[in-house]
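Following up on my earlier thread - several people asked me to post the actual chain instead of describing it. Fair enough. Here it is, all 72 residues.
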Amino acid sequence: MPRWGGWTSDLAESAEAFGLYHPERAEQMRRAAVIGRTPSPVPGVLRELIDHLGPWLAGEYATVHGEKAVRP
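Reply from S.P.:
Thanks for posting it. Predicted structure:
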């Protein structure tokens, strides 16, 4: 959100802001925003987010902010 220059708790708006900087992942983030409000009964949808979007987000975070230290 700092690159975007704002803050919102609206998941749809956050997904759109995310898509400005990562257009290749925009559709996945839109789906994640929808599922955050209304869970999907389709297991494949959640699996896509867990197996594909989640690891990518973790990698991006680590690249920008570094690895977090393990807490005791």
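The longest helix spans residues 43-65. That should answer part of your original question.
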